Amino acid sequence: MDKQSVLIVGGHGVVGRQIGEILHARYPDLTIVLGGRTPGKAAPFGNGKIHTAVVDNNSEDPLMCIDNKPALIVNAVNDLQDRLLLSAVRRSIPLIDITRWTSLFRQSVDKLNSMELRAPVVMASGWMAGTAALFAKLYAQPLHQVEADLYALYSLKDKAGPDSTAYMDRMTIPFPVMEPAGRRLVYPMSDPVRVQFPNGYATRCYRLDTPDHETLIRTEAIASASFRIAFDSKAATQSIVMLIKSGIWKMISGERFRGLRRGILYNPGTGSAHHIRIVLKGLDAEGNRAERNVSITDPLGQTHLTALGAAVQAEKLLRLPKERPLAPGIYYPEDLPDERMDHAAITGFYEKHGVKISWE
């Protein structure tokens, strides 16, 4: 670990900074470089091991100004043209990306599949940097033929970066989900399911397109997956549903009304807890129906939970012996568990950082 360095692109942002703080606290000797578009920006925390660099994902080669090749890159800001992704691939630098909504995620994976990779690329763009899907996999074992239902309660008082509401631009676009009866197209904010979250708040949750639908069903035990969301204001949730069902949301689609759409739900506050509930229904070893309910709460909110999701993926790569690096290829959040980062180690990582996890 002594001579390794990690570049966090978007390192001055709400999530990127927290990723840096988490890794710095866990590995004080690790050199951390916070990448951003503003030249000469001072490091916002830490000691002499924290540096800054100019990295602009809109430039043709975002890593052009990086003098020393980092051991790992964590991307926490939109990379809409895959420029950072390809810049890292060309240089054979391991990359963790937590920024892609599903269509962009799928396009990027297709692009990577057509290339010869010489380093691992972790596509961790699921909910909270893949945290929800990761715990779905952990607690699905040893069940099989599992139906995984993921629910999130998003607080309108929580902190949020400007990229956090990118999904708002896709609220009228249908997306595929895998269900017990097979794959079908569904619409965002449809098919409500009433859910009670760990804080006791009960409300209807509605479908949302996230990469969890794509990655979870790759897990051997999981046959189908769905993701739904609710906001901690029932009035706000119902307003969004009404705007979409009435066709008004489609009328205000496009670049011209982007500010209006974002303004409806992007009014970040000083912070609030983020809650996730995971319901897993499957068969046990004897073929009997079994159900597990997992509750996850981060008192520090969704940006902190996202940062933890990125940091736990980074920790796996950083802890691997140099003589046994992770093989080149595409990885997803659910690929994290191994003999070094098992169920107990992953759960312990989150709990050490204040996340409350329970199951029944």
From TrEMBL:
State the name under which the record lists this protein. Saccharopine dehydrogenase
Q: Which Gene3D superfamilies match?
A: NAD(P)-binding Rossmann-like Domain
Q: Which species?
A: Paenibacillus oceani
Top-level taxonomy: Bacteria, Bacillati, Bacillota, Bacilli, Bacillales
| InterPro entries given in the database record | NAD(P)-bd_dom_sf
